Amino acid sequence: xxxxxxxxxxxxxVSGFSGAGKGTIMKALLSRYEGYALSVSMTTREPRExxxxxxxxxxxxxxxxxxxxxxxxxxxxxxxVKHSYGTPRRYVEDQIAAGKxxxxxxxxxxxxxxxxxxPEANTVFVTTPSAEELKKRLRGRGxxxxxxxxxxxxRAVEETEFIPYYQHxxxxxxxxxxxxxxxxxxxxxxxxxxxVEQFREDLKNIG
Length: 207
Ligand code: ADP
Ligand code: 5GP
Fold this sequence. Notes:
Layout: E1 11-16, H1 22-32, E2 36-38, E3 41-43, E4 57-59, H2 62-70, E5 74-80, E6 83-88, H3 89-97, E7 101-105, H4 108-117, E8 122-127, H5 131-140, H6 146-159, E9 168-171, H7 175-206
Adenosine-5'-diphosphate binds at residues 16, 18-24, 137, 140-141, 172, 175.
């Protein structure tokens, strides 16, 4: 490692059923610990009440989204239910280079694209303890129409098929506990990676 370059950060993909608590966990993780950077995605969906452009998402038109695809500006992108979502490439690359532990809160198709490009990424799938609890939280959030709740639950059934591709399953029962577990597994994964990198260097030099 060069003397004046910061240690490279890590990349963690957090996916999970809509309503499982990903957003809530991310917020708590960022407020509780230092060193994390949450990527803000672009989406073509309408902002929910209380959401701010540039904070939860960059809310854009389909035209702007398509232009960003053409310019190669996304690290990954996908359609979810009726809208497009994508991760702006630049921010993620810059933050990792600056030593941050970058978090992507994205759905399963995007996660698979990231794994192909960056197999070293850490992957976590968030679920509620039960299907009943998922429906309850999704409704309780009060942001979705009944049609949207049904669409998201139907999508959740399809998403279960992707869970085996994730390294970790995080059951979000008690919020504080889930946040602590996520932090621990990200830090463990970093240590593992550092160990492997050091081992490889040592092997090369051992002759
Ligand atoms: P997601 O980002 O996965 O769609 P949210 O973070 O919006 O989910 O959470 C969905 C709803 O569940 C919100 O109303 C949130 O306050 C609630 N919630 C999140 N985590 C928990 C938890 N551990 N226990 C109970 N309710 C939770
Ligand atoms: P929501 O509309 O509830 O904010 O998000 C719907 C789904 O899109 C969630 O599963 C969320 O994780 C996912 N999502 C948010 N941003 C991105 C992104 O940049 N790329 C992909 N592939 N999925 C995203």
